[in-house]
Amino acid sequence: MAAPRPSGGMDPRSGFCAATRTFHSLRPSAALPPDSLPATAAAYAFSILSSPLPDRPALVDAATSISVSYPSFLAAVRSLAGGLWSVLGLRPGDVVLVVSPSRIDVPVIDFALMSIGAVVSPANPASTAEEYTHMVALSRPVVALAAPEVAAKLPRNLRCVVIGSNEYKSLSSAGGVAPSPPVAVKQSDTAAVLYSSGTTGRVKAAAVSHRNLIAVISAHRNNRVIAEKEAAEAGEEPLPPTVTLFPLPLFHVFGFMMLLRSVAMGETAVLMDRFDFIAALRAIERYRVTLLPAAPPVLVAMIKSEEARRCDLSSLLFIGIGGAPLGREVAERFAAIFPNIELIQGYGLTETSGSVASTVGPDECKAYGSVGKLASHLEAKIVDPSTGEVLGPGQRGELWVRGPVVMKGYVGDDEATAATVDSEGWLKTGDLCYFNEDGLLYIVDRLKELIKYKGYQVPPAELEHILNSHPDIMDAAVIPYPDEDAGQLPMAFIVRKPGSNLTEQQVMDFVAKQVAPYKKVRRVAFVSAIPKSPAGKILRRELVEQAVSMGTSKL
């Protein structure tokens, strides 16, 4: 739990308390159920649904247009929960590996598992057999529920029920006859085991509690109340019901958290089996999508796409940005082309159940480059990674956060847990950040990804924002290239716009005009695509390996 907000000594503008060297949330406190009250995240989400149930679809399959109403969704969850309990014999604390693209079955499975106290462990359907073996060794699931096309890649010694098979369908049939009994699940019990993206090392398994997810839902609900109040005070029309397009995978914390939010708030979730930019534009047009969660490269693609200008995107009111820092240049260019779409910037980690900060309302959303203010219940510190000194507003250091969204720990890795969460509950994010005088948080870059050039620290994200502003560059990534004299050189991987003849020297000159000499890009490679995680994070390790293997002569 976060420490109580100090009664005095806190700057009401920045949220910084000089006495404790701690930043506190500036958001109004959001009500949470008492710790002692048994509750699952699924039960909490359903408890705040409007009564009667919303008359709009809960889920829509973007490819097939199949939709599921709220009454049908809740009935499907209850039926499957009964079958999971009576047929598979699942009990509270049992871990279940869920491996599938984002299809309508997945939300039903996730909510059914959580409702009986079983632990959801969603995994990437594109993973290799070796990666599944590693995940299974960490989370120790008792059974897997998997899409037909991925079931064969799972370890042979793990029982697997194929989604859509007769065996799977029989679970719901049995559950309809014998529903699961009421279970007393502690909020502190594990609700999900989420696998970290593994962009800086091997995948780890973060144990997230029901309390963590309840706090996330509560914070999102709180933000909506704030936004609606501000809109009413400004004399604006009430917002239409939210229809969210899910181009992001439900196994990733961003998608998992957004799905919980969508259901709890009675919204409509439009699911995409896999991300396809043109298909996403057409889905926005067809289903009158109002909210699009996306990583910054999607904005860059929209800016440079003729198709985006041809599609009817008039329903789209908000784009929720996550997964990586959003550069001011990209945000400003996007706002100039799409002035009626508000960019909601946010920041979270797998280890914080997907929630740390976000912008709320038009004024905050125009603070381009910021990921907003700390969510309710949270407090933060900015710590100098070299000296351990705790810093104040405007000073850069590693962000530490504490509060009810912080994970229980890494499953099967006590050493990594101890290195990440200290004895007082502070989670060390590994991100270089600062708060400004208004309590707005800015992410500079991952500490582990800073390029060390002749003793200087160069943030790759800063150079990537500049590169992506070039009209002939479709996508870009910057990595550290080993160098005997400098230590590391900033090297850019560039995806040129079709038909462009952009040269290496032109790329380097373009950046050099806008940065200090030590930040200049000193090597360039042209590629057809930038490798990214499902959440849109650049897989820099792959690019470093590629750069080294290419060798000097081939660059």
Outline the structure in words.
31% of the residues lie in helices and 24% in strands. It is of the alpha/beta class. The strands form six sheets. Strands 1, 2, 13, 14, 15, 16, 17, 18, 19, 20, 22 and 23 form a twelve-stranded mixed beta sheet that branches. Strands 4-3-12-11 form a four-stranded mixed beta sheet, with helices on both faces. Helix 1 runs parallel beside helix 7, helix 2 (70-86) crosses helix 3 and helix 6 crosses helix 7 (253-264). It is globular, with a radius of gyration of 23 Å. The mean pLDDT is 91. Its EC number is 6.2.1.12.
How would you sum up this structure in a few lines?
The protein has 16 helices and 28 strands.
Question: How does the SSE layout of this entry go?
Answer:
Layout: E1 16-17, E2 22-24, H1 41-47, E3 57-61, E4 67-69, H2 70-86, E5 95-99, H3 105-115, E6 119-123, H4 129-139, E7 143-146, E8 160-162, H5 166-177, E9 190-195, E10 205-209, H6 210-233, E11 243-246, H7 253-264, E12 268-271, H8 277-287, E13 291-294, H9 296-304, H10 306-310, E14 318-321, H11 328-337, E15 342-347, E16 357-358, H12 361-365, E17 370-374, E18 379-383, E19 390-391, E20 397-402, E21 409-410, H13 414-420, E22 427-435, E23 441-446, E24 451-453, E25 456-458, H14 460-468, E26 473-483, E27 487-496, H15 504-512, E28 523-526, H16 540-550
Helix pairs in contact: 1-6, 1-7, 2-3, 2-5, 6-7, 9-11
